[in-house]
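Handout, page 2. Input:
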Amino acid sequence: MECKDKDLIPAEHEEEILVLKSIFNEDFLSIDNENHPSTFDLIIHFDSLPKKILLIHEEYNTSTELSHLPPITLRIIYKQTYPEIDPPLYCISCDYLTCDQLLLLVNQMDRMWKSGEVIVYTWIEFLKDYFYNMNNQLILSSIESSINDQRFLTNYNKIGSKRIYEQLIEYNRIQDQLEFEQTNHICPIW
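Output:
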């Protein structure tokens, strides 16, 4: 299939990039890439989850509640043929999801793309929905996976589930403290 007007594709890239920059501000990071000039990272935050998530470590039989999850990074690389023929290339970076969990996410993202339509913002909303509605629990286990997929990066196996559990608790504690410090509190004096 031949692209009708190749001059429109870069304009469509620029239009989508302008929209994403206006939404993400400092969380939109342009990446210098000679082979793909339209390459950027989007930092997607999940700081204030609508419901607490139960963080469970299966092996150690421990659990705690979280109100905050660390952000993930979504790297986007526009192909010259996006959006008319091909979707953009992408890579999700997240160290607290397993390879199996990430594989499910990227497979769903692939199925969402339709020829001729911009997709990046739809993917972002899908990822946010996933994290905001993850059945109110995040289960960590020591099961290692050897899945190698260019659509995601994770250090889950290297860091280890026990350390990830500790990091998520610490991140949540820091975010709770920041939230507390930024909120006005009434302190009645009698």
